[in-house]
Design brief:
By secondary structure, the chain is of the alpha+beta class. It is 38% helix and 13% strand. It folds into four domains: 3-50, no CATH class; 66-71 and 235-314, no CATH class; 74-227, no CATH class; 338-414, no CATH class. The strands form six sheets. The protein has a four-stranded antiparallel beta sheet. It has a three-stranded antiparallel beta sheet with strand order 13-14-15.
Amino acid sequence: MTEQDNHSCEVYHFDLYGTREEKYRYLQTHNLNDVEWQQLTPQAPSFFFVPKDFSLQQEYEQGFKIDELMKVNVSGIKTQRDDASVFLSEKEMLAMRNDFLTLSVDELKSKYGFKDVRDWQVQAAKEDIQKNPILADKLCYRPFDIRPMLYTGKTKGIQGYPRYDKMRHLLYGYYRDTEGIVNIGLLVPRQCENDWHYVFISNNICDINYTGTAGKLGAGNVFPLYLYPEEGSIDTSRRPNLDEKIWAQINTTVGKDTTPEDIFDYIYGVLHSPAYRAKYKEFLKVDFPRIPYPKDQAEFEHFRSFGNRLRELHLMHNVPESPVTFPNAGSMQVDALRWEWNKDDGYSGNVYINETQCFEGVPAEAWDFYIGGYQPAQKWLKDRKGRTLSFDDIEHYRKIISVLMETSRLMKKIG
């Protein structure tokens, strides 16, 4: 295409909503000349063929990108076969490990219905479990859902893509940090659909679908805060996964030397700001988020403080007392789920797990709350359908609701 051809191109857009019959009727009664077209001016680098408001683009791009500040990042592990290495109980995990050690390939296929695919084969999984130690037994599977797992770190073994070269930083932080500060990872996607609520935290190895379904926009990358040396290295000290120039620029504005945790908390606070999400909605859909540099120490401290409280909350530390109760005796089995208004207060509702048992005092705000592509208050229970809840499960779910309620409250105060 010549330069002259390029300048002569015009792009127009029109949305048509309704039923199929209504759309057919419109097409039969209109032609290209009487459609109410909207002329577009696609801009680099994405050249969208739909209307977008990019009036704030210059302001937004003055901030720093997450992947510019935290250059080491990776998508979560991809098991290729969740039911072979991720479990809802430690008992199930140990039973699976024992079966891989003792049963033949044919017996494993018969018992579990395993089938060989390109990146996961029963023979390779069996050999992996037989020959290699389990390096980690916890996985951040979904928000507030940490599950037992079998993790050797070997590619195309018990898990297809364990991504050990990057995930080891979270693994080492969890097991080997002598300073008493576990490593943490920031979860954000490169792209997302609709409203932006795709940010979370991890202090363990995490799944590729931790905050969003793989294959759809929203599955995030994990950005570890600290990096650890290679196994056997003479230097055993960790280093922050932070770009020195960006970090120094923030310190200059703030007027003091900040810690890596300060920077993490500032970012976490900004990304939970409803005003930030609304203002830069269009930009957050198309690439890793850009974070505005703080204007001064007061602004930095505002977001850092809220980010710190949210970080602790989402790691389920210092969870407020939950107002949710589980008053009725019964089977404790999760069957058909439903949420119903509590007629007594008109604010909260009851989450029924079967016909006779429910969690009482669950606000609609918590029941509908999104983290990434999931509604944790609903997702956690749906994943346990057909199972019997333990007393620990009930207490954990009560804490989830408390965390979601407090998160919503804090976000309203961030601004």
